[in-house]
Amino acid sequence: MIFDLSEDHVMMRKMVRDFAENECAAGAEERDEKEEFPREIWNKLAELGLAGITFPEKYGGVEADYLSYAIAVEELSRVDASVGVTVSAHSSLCANPIYLFGTEEQKQKYLVPLASGEKMGAFGLTEPMAGSDASGTRTTAVKDGDDYIINGTKIFITNAYEADTYVVTAQMDKSKGNKGIAAFILEKGMPGFSFGKKEKKMGIRSSATYELVFDNVRVPGENLLGQEGQGFKIAMVTLDFGRIGIASQALGIAQGAYEQARKYAKERVQFGQPIAHFQANQFKLADMATQIEAARLLVYQAAYLATQHKPVSKASAMAKLHASETAMWVTTQAVQMHGGYGYTREYPVERMMRDAKITEIYEGTSEVQRIVIGSHILKE
Ligand code: CAA
């Protein structure tokens, strides 16, 4: 597949790169250190339309394609992966399922303020006993008149506490397995809906990660997303698209670390010459650039397929698998090339290496991506 980036894509990259370098770069290290959520950055990027890139204008979005979205998340993550995932989780995991499965009323009420960035979104799927086995949800939803009563706990929820709107899954009939699960739209502030512990993480430390606690939360029937029993499918489809966002995040982290390593190799003098003159380092840089380019092709291909409304499950799993493993490998090499300095917080590659690790874990571990890819290729 040949990617001929349009003028719009080139403009999107330039706009987001300028924004990331001018607004995100300077404070990234301090936010990481203090675990400080980038609220001001969110407000500014929402003004630029980055909270609703793929959604139609009539729902508050900018009606651009998935490639524009991938480029935007890549460019934000090249500088600060915590900002990248904030945008990705909001758009892919909350606004998108409402766009894909919501009623017109739900779209007007919830998608419009999400896509404009007036509100922020999050997605509650993972639980203490339901991680990779996402259908093992123990959060329950019981019908009570026209309403549903939700009880349970979700963990590791990106954007939680900061977000206003939550797409959450719950089991309605255990005997039906994944077909007993339903998805709901919840609002911060609903009685009985609170936040548990804030996670102290290895990386993406300035992104918000909290537990969600539901104690007899009464959710109106109009907040059921899709049909009863459709929740697992909604979650899987949501993740098919979401993985494009995480793949883009990983791609951006890898690109950022590679650029840092290349710059350092040209400047750092040892044995009387820049270390870039040593073939060992040239080979490393060559391998980094090649892996990143391969990852970029997979990510952009998945984004292209999403825009074309073609099946995206296998392509997004491949993109996420390769991009996240590339991010981990490239950032590790970048730290290595910086030597002792790379292990300190004086240089950003240390943060990038910590940030890269999560891309191999969330929205499905690398092992889960291989399960998804494997199940598709065996059916072909
Ligand atoms: N689209 C539509 N339907 C799908 C689907 C998809 N992509 N994937 C599965 N389904 C359907 C299947 O067709 C099947 O339907 P039938 O029963 O009618 O045949 C049903 O769902 C069950 O499918 P499986 O038997 O394949 O399901 P499984 O229980 O074996 O699980 C899995 C498969 C791939 C491991 C899945 O559980 C999974 O993706 N796990 C990982 C969960 C995950 O990614 N969690 C991330 C949390 S979110 C997060 O991380 C956010 C963040 O912080 C940023």
Molecular structure report:
Keywords: FAD, Flavoprotein, Oxidoreductase. Residues 6-118 form the Acyl-CoA dehydrogenase/oxidase N-terminal domain. One of its GO terms (molecular function) is acyl-CoA dehydrogenase activity. This protein has a four-stranded mixed beta sheet. Strands 2-3-7-6 form a four-stranded antiparallel beta sheet, with helices on one face. The relative contact order is 0.12. 53% of the residues lie in helices and 15% in strands. The longest helix has 37 residues, at 231-267. It has three domains: 7-120, Butyryl-Coa Dehydrogenase, subunit A, domain 1 (Orthogonal Bundle), CATH 1.10.540.10; 122-231, Beta Barrel (Butyryl-CoA Dehydrogenase, subunit A, domain 2); 232-378, Butyryl-CoA Dehydrogenase, subunit A, domain 3 (Up-down Bundle), CATH 1.20.140.10. The mean pLDDT is 97. It is globular and about 80 Å long. With 380 residues, the chain is an alpha+beta fold. The chain is built from ten helices and ten strands. Helix 4 (81-101) runs antiparallel to helix 5. The chain starts with 6 loop residues before the first helix and ends with a helix. A hairpin with a 2-residue loop joins strand 2 and strand 3. The structure holds acetoacetyl-coenzyme A. Acetoacetyl-coenzyme A (CAA) is lined by residues 85, 89, 93, 123, 125-126, 132-135, 156, 158, 178, 232-233, 236-237, 239-240, 313, 362-364, 368, 371-372.
